[in-house]
């Protein structure tokens, strides 16, 4: 049995990670400041003997004896991370310093949830880990993109300078049950709009692309990365390489929900990347043949059921 700290454990991805690691027989400490996460996401784990919940903000140090740390804390949707940009960058940078300091003191292995956003609006397509990215350092998205880039630098420097055992994953757009219904991300927006019969809001022409990964595939890749061979630190892309335009996504959501919603077009936000698709050869090679198993149609079905349940129980 390992003792595992998960920062951001009450969020969308973190809650799935808590559940999976508990089910595998570990002791899990979930640390969260509830900015975008919620106790609802982990309510079903509260009675578990080996689950602990701590309210804490990772911009402040935290002391605990653990074997592993999954550093997932950070708002992930543009609406949420742009709400308080200074806080967002503090969470990424000061949070990384605090968690790396803890890992160094107690000898824990630590994994960083980085992001495809480190590639910015990429001029190389699809994106391999060797691509350095095209990020505007002073734009609307930079608090998130540059914060995550700096966190990667900190992880590498703690590894080379202090021999901290690190792992870095770059997560591409992920969706699934327990996404926040109002987080403004495209999958949650389209599904909520379709279920309520509201207009589906496509930003710009809808020709921009994203590759959508179902949360279970991400959790599998994340745990495999934590357990990967010593000396392999990444960064490694974890995402689904099947690429869709936003128009195709809107049409699929309308079909799967049987919705009468109309598609409307709104202005494209500043610095919105035009395309994004991971190269996952490194993950396949280093993580025992890891590749996504759940394709969009199936994953959207599960996510639609979740949001439908929220609406019916007046929780959305
Ligand atoms: P989320 O917003 O649902 O979860 C983030 C969690 O971190 C929330 O529970 C929030 O309350 C908590 N948190 C935020 N700031 C904190 C702080 N200062 N101290 C303590 N807790 C704090 O987002 P998510 O989609 O679950 O993302 C989880 C991680 O994965 C994030 O680091 C995100 O950057 C990364 N990521 C996610 C995606 C995606 O598509 N979901 C893509 C790339 C990277
Ligand atoms: N988007 C959209 N309609 C929405 C929300 C988002 O067309 O209601 C677009 C957005 O402009 C972007 C893509 O969908 O091009 C993915 O946006 P999201 O916020 O989900 O993720 P990110 O831009 O961080 O990849």
Automatic annotation (TrEMBL):
Q: What is its main location?
A: cytoplasm
What does the UniProt entry say about where the protein is found? Cytoplasm
The UniProt entry, under InterPro entries, shows: Epimerase_deHydtase (IPR001509), NAD(P)-bd_dom_sf (IPR036291), UXS-like (IPR044516)
Pfam families the UniProt entry points to: Epimerase
Quick check: keyword Lyase in the entry? yes
* Biological processes, Gene Ontology terms: D-xylose metabolic process; UDP-D-xylose biosynthetic process
- GO cellular component term, pick one: cytoplasm
* Signal peptide residues on this chain, from the entry's feature table: none
* Ranges for domain NAD-dependent epimerase/dehydratase: 4-239
* Cofactor(s) the protein requires to work: NAD(+)
Gene3D superfamilies reported for this sequence: NAD(P)-binding Rossmann-like Domain
Keywords of the record: Cytoplasm, Decarboxylase, Lyase, NAD
User: What name appears for this protein in its UniProt entry?
Assistant: NAD-dependent epimerase/dehydratase family protein
Q: Which domain of life is it from?
A: Bacteria
